[in-house]
Amino acid sequence: MSATGAKWRNWGRTEQVTPLRVERPASVGAVQRAVIASGRSGLTIKPVGAGHSFTGIAVAPGVQLDLSAISGLVSIDTARLRVTLGAGTNLHRIPALLQPFGLAMTNLGDIDRQTISGAISTGTHGTGARFGGIATQVVGAALVIGDGSLLVVNETENAELLPAVALGLGSLGVLVEVTLQCVPAFVLHAVEKAEPLADVLDSLAARVAATDHFEFYWFPHTSTALTKTNTRLPGSAERRPLPPLKRLLDDELVANQVFRATCTAGTRFPAVIPRVNRLAEKLTGTREFTDHSARVFATRRTVRFVEMEYAIPAADVPAALREIDELIERRGWRISFPVEVRFAASDDLWLSTASGRDTGYIAVHRFYRDNPAEYFRAVEEIMMAHSGRPHWGKVHYRDAASLGEVYPHFGQFCALRDQLDPERLFTNTYLDRVLGA
């Protein structure tokens, strides 16, 4: 099915476009025909997922592909704990697809609205020093490349391309199927509490190494870290989930409704922000619960924001965070949104932000009604001084020349792009900036 394009906007309201045409293919063959037709018409073609990238990585001014009909379970290999999914499958649907087989994804991020293809293509990740981003769970994929043919990549076919295809920014072709290496279903024991920021930073390396999944938030203008420690337990372990009323009060009323109100007030009256942040610091209590992994990893976010996230060597996180604190106070800024800190294991994917090094992630945010540019550009300077790599789906200001200096396999990836998409059917303004035209 095809239609004249209507205006598309991403979730963060940082990007919008009116495509010339929207295609809604319901099969792999239909995707191939759409790619061939676009090439003949001289139009670029790009799939769009859930719109959760803050960069223009999914902007499709030519033909926009809606892959929502190419979703769900394609096949499962219970012996090897592997599942093949349609590329348009949303992350939040996957746990229910895996549950009948006693399986789970190894790790997830804290937002699960994205499609699986969008999540892996942008380098979406969770936290845990022994666990990689979602793309590291990919053991196979099928994509439609520039000439309209179907390229299959797995351990027996074109295996050498997997480190590029698993995290390809949507620049190598249109993903139609993704095969994930799963694990037996497990539960997580979660402990969330407020702790002195200085203590957390002083013991950070040991703490991250000793914990399955550790992360923390820090509200600027305060001295407290809101820590989240998740320990993996067998799927048979007793669950003690949060009572429904407490989950509603904490995660919906306070974390979303009240926070939205305070952010709106802070936009109009910036001087109140430090006081509000200190109040949030005092109101944050300890929570402890055990539940299915996906219910602990992911949280519901309805307050709209804009985000920049950088990956730096894990050992550099304390110094970089202290520099951000000093920057905010020196400039006299009033920042209502917290800074988020997470961790990931080194991997071998060519364009992974954790490629070749154990990684810490520092994410800064602004309310979507605030202009983030001055804050983000200044933070980016700090991150670049720590050999930082920006998240591909979050705001940054880097270009191909700059990014080529921090990715050892950048040249190899660009050469493969030339091979699979020589006519640049799958490009857009953002990809031209970060990979070269």
UniProtKB/TrEMBL annotation:
Q: Would you say which domain of life the source belongs to? A: Bacteria
Q: Keyword Amino-acid biosynthesis: yes or no?
A: no
Domain FAD-binding PCMH-type: residue ranges: 15-185
Entries under InterPro entries matching the protein? ALO_C, FAD-bd_PCMH, FAD-bd_PCMH-like_sf, FAD-bd_PCMH_sub1, FAD-bd_PCMH_sub2, FAD_lactone_oxidase-like, Oxid_FAD_bind_N, Vanillyl_alc_oxidase_C-sub2
**Which controlled-vocabulary keywords does the entry list?**
Oxidoreductase
Enumerate the PROSITE patterns for this protein.
Answer: FAD_PCMH
The keyword Oxidoreductase appears for this protein: yes
- In Swiss-Prot or TrEMBL terms, this protein is called FAD-linked oxidoreductase
The organism is Subtercola frigoramans
